[in-house]
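Record type: monomer structure entry
Structure origin: computed from sequence
Chain ID: A
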Amino acid sequence: MLLATLLAFYLTCLLAYILAYVLAYLLAFYLAYLLAFYLANLLAFYLAYLLAFYLANHLAYILTYLLAFYLAFYLAFYLAYLLAFYLANLLAFYLANLLAFYLTYLLAFYLAYLLAFYLAYLLAFYLTYLMAFYLAYLMAFYLAYLLAFYLASLLAFYLAVEVQRCTLSWAGPRLRSSGAH
């Protein structure tokens, strides 16, 4: 019985020692190793995957959607609105102002100035020049022509008639236009 007790005691000690030491060692090692490995592996893989995929996907999707939609909306709205408003306002005001002022001012000034100057100049020059030239030329030419022609023709006609009426003539006998005496 002593042998059985000693055997039981040593077997229990050995078993307890082996179980405590080896089991504790194996449990601690493999539990820590596997827990650390799989937790690190799973956490690293799935956390990185989920974070990278969903964060990048949703962030990119939502950011692009929001940026595209609201940026396009506000840009289009305010750009079109402000551009149309200010362009219409500025164009209408300044264009109307500048056109009205400069068009009327320049048109009135230059038309009045140019018309007054050139009309007076052209009228004075051409009226005096042309009237003086053509009146003097035409009057001199036609007056000389008419005077010469009509004086010559009247003188010739009346001389011929007067020569016939005159009884005494320095040139000899009287000439008649007809043959009757």
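Annotation 1: The chain has a mean pLDDT of 83.
Annotation 2: The radius of gyration is 68 Å.
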